[in-house]
Amino acid sequence: MPFGHDMVHSLATVVELVNTSPSTGGEEGLSGLAELQAFVESRKISGVSTLTARDLGQVRMVREAFHRVFTAPDQPTAVRTLNALLAETRITPRLTEHDGHPLHVHYFAADATLAEHVAADCGVALAHLLVEGEAERLRTCSAPDCDRVFVDESRNRSRVYCDSRTCGNRMHVAAYRARRRA
Ligand SMILES: [Zn+2]
Ligand SMILES: [Zn+2]
């Protein structure tokens, strides 16, 4: 995909966030502040102060809005859903160099909450993806018991499973067994 490092990072963050949602077939992945803190650390989200229950509630709401973008049945719906999220998000573009990264743009305000930070950076990354006509890269796993989302970054847009080592492998084994039984 012709996307820069920041955008790839933000897309990976939104995928990881959405997949903590019970809407994707598993348990609530953000069940408390410890889980929220682990998410912040795993995605290296900078400038986050002490997290509160309010952050947890706000991040979960943003997460569900992003889930609706991923599962939109068509591009106009994805655009409308993302626009609704962006309209509620404080976005303040700012050039920055930090932690050894080259000059890049942050979209969250300097005093942003965690939810505002994620909504702004991931929202803008998804907006660019839609602008590039790549809405169909926003996918839901094809395994019957898995609704995790992913961004298909393959050249020929052929990826169908959220993770080739887990769901992909599982489905290949199931298909193999079905063939042997037949
Ligand atoms: Zn940065
Ligand atoms: Zn899956």
Summarize the helices and strands and which ones pair or pack.
Blueprint: H1 5-18, H2 33-42, H3 53-70, H4 75-87, E1 94-96, E2 104-106, H5 114-131, E3 138-140, E4 149-151, H6 164-181
Antiparallel strand pairs: 1-2, 3-4
The structure holds zinc ion (2 copies).
Residues 141, 143, 146, 148, 161-163, 167 line the site of one zinc ion.
Organism: [Actinomadura] parvosata subsp. kistnae
Pfam family, one: ABATE
Protein name: Zinc finger CGNR domain-containing protein
Give structural notes:
This protein is mainly alpha-helical and 182 residues long. The protein has a single domain (5-181), classed as Jann2411-like domain (Jann2411-like fold, Orthogonal Bundle), CATH 1.10.3300. The chain contains six helices and four strands; from the N terminus they run ααααββαββα. A two-stranded antiparallel sheet has the order 1-2. A hairpin with an 8-residue loop joins β3 and β4 (149-151). The longest helix is centred in the middle third of the chain and has 18 residues, at 53-70. The protein is globular and about 60 Å long.
Task: Give short descriptive properties of this protein.
182 residues; 4 strands; Jann2411-like fold; globular; mainly alpha; binds zinc ion
Quick summary:
This protein has 182 residues and is mainly alpha-helical. It is 50% helix and 7% strand.
